[in-house]
Amino acid sequence: MNKSQNIYDNQDFFDGYKKLRDNQYSANNLEEKPALFSLAPDLQGKAVLDLGCGYGENCAEFKALGATTVLGVDISEKMLAVATAEHSDIEFIRADMSDLSFLKRKFDVVFSSLALHYIENFGLFVKDVYSLLNDGGYFIFSQEHPLTTAPIAGASWSKDADDNVLHYNLTDYARGGKRSTRWIVDGVEKYHRTFSEIINALVTAGFTIEKMIEPIPTKETIERDKSWEKYLHKPNFLLIKAMKKME
Ligand SMILES: C[S@@+](CC[C@H](N)C(=O)[O-])C[C@H]1O[C@@H](n2cnc3c(N)ncnc32)[C@H](O)[C@@H]1O
Fold first, then answer.
1. Of 32, 9, 20, 14, which is closest to residue 221 (Cα–Cα)?
2. Which residue, 68, 103, 145, 221, could crosslink 217 as a Cys pair with Cβ 3.0–4.6 Å?
3. In ligand 1, which atom is closest to the CA atom of 32?
4. Distance (Å) from CA 99 to ligand 1 centroid
5. Is 144 in the pocket of ligand 1 (CB under 6 A)?
6. Ligand 1 center to residue 167 CA distance, Å?
7. Tens digits of per-residue pLDDT, 24-80?
8. Is 4 in the pocket of ligand 1 (CB under 6 A)?
9. Ligand 1 atom closest to residue 50's alpha carbon, by position in its atom list
10. 115 Cβ below 6 A of ligand 1
11. What is the 3-state secondary structure of the chain?
12. Where are the domains of the chain?
């Protein structure tokens, strides 16, 4: 079935990821989710697709915000086992979203939260999403920030003798393509794309970009934990809201 890597079905990865997500102060909770939901249009009566839906948490919120139908798609059996157990009123399909030709219906809003850096052919993927949307529909996604995915050796920071962060070690930005990194386990495959590659793929597919967000930690977050201050050098995430123009 899979063309793409399915690392979330690796038991060690799955357990480690669960621990990260159980932390109330995770980057997802503090930065990514608030930014994602701030981009959501009125979902009342809308048909919503969530690509790389994971545990289905966002799907449940889309429904609570008034969406009439919500479909979650994910490649991972383990993630979907949690999703179906916790959200029995939502439809989930196990599939590799790098080929969306199995979807025969249209949607008003397509969301994808922190999954697109796992997709190799972004241009093709974005064209598929465009054709799945109704006119005036939205594609709203978050991904690891391109400055995070850039270094081939993995993201790292330079520190002084007292362990204070001096700066982010940016390398390989213009070298797009596959990255094999250690994140929870070795050999996690992600794809690095420059800003221009991301934006040009969206524009080429026909999208109009309405808004971008690179969330940074709030003052309260930094006061609670000074280690968050480094994300003022380099944000964790990139979020984009793009619209399919009315024909
Ligand atoms: C970081 S998790 C995010 C889960 C969820 N969107 C959230 O924000 O809570 C990434 C998810 O993308 C899924 N994923 C990765 N590659 C995929 C692919 N090619 N097709 C479908 N899902 C994929 C993973 O299985 C995982 O559940």
1. 32
2. 221
3. 8
4. 14
5. no
6. 30
7. 999 999 999 999 999 999 999 999 999 999 999 999 999 999 999 999 999 999 999
8. yes
9. 6
10. yes
11. CCCCCCHHHCHHHHHHHHHHHHCCCCHHHHHHHHHHHHHCCCCCCCEEEEECCCCCHHHHHHHHCCCCEEEEEECCHHHHHHHHHHCCCCEEEECCCCCCCCCCCCEEEEEEECCHHHCCCHHHHHHHHHHHEEEEEEEEEEEECHHHHCCCCCCCEEECCCCCEEEECCCCCCCCEEEEEEECEEEEEEEECCHHHHHHHHHHHCEEEEEEECCCCCHHHHHHCHHHHHHHCCCCEEEEEEEECCC
12. 7-244
Atom of ligand 1 nearest to the CA of 8: 25
Tokens of 44: 């009342």
Beta bridge partners of 107: 133
Domain 7-244 has CATH 3.50.30.30: no
Cβ density class 130-140: b for 16+ within 10 Å, e for less: bebbeeebbbb
Sequence-separated (6 or more) residues with CB below 8 Å from residue 189: 5, 7, 118, 178, 179, 180
Overall pTM > 0.70: yes
